[in-house]
Amino acid sequence: MKVTIRVNGVEHTREVEPRLLLSDFLRHEIGLTGTHVGCEHGVCGACTILWDGAPARSCLAFAVQAEGHEIRTVEGLAPAPGKLNPLQQAFQDAHGLQCGYCTPGILMTMTAFLEDNPKPDEAQVREALSGNLCRCTGYQHIVDAVLLASQA
Amino acid sequence: MKPAPFAWHAPEDVAEALALKASHGEAARFLAGGQSLVPAMNFRVAQPAVLVDLNRVSALDSLNFDAAGGLRIGAMCRYRRIERDAEVARHLPLLVEALAEVAHPQIRTRGTLAGNLSHADPASEMPAVMLALEARFLLRRQGGERLVAARDFFLGPLATALAEDEMLAEIHIPALPPGSGTAFLEVARRRGDYAMMGVAAVLRRGPDGRCVAARLALCSAGPTPILADRAAANLVGTRLTGEDFAAAAALVVTEIDPMGSVQASPAYQRHLAGVLVPRALALAAERAA
Question: For this UniProt entry, which residues form the secretion signal (chain A) (predicted)?
Answer without folding.
Answer: none
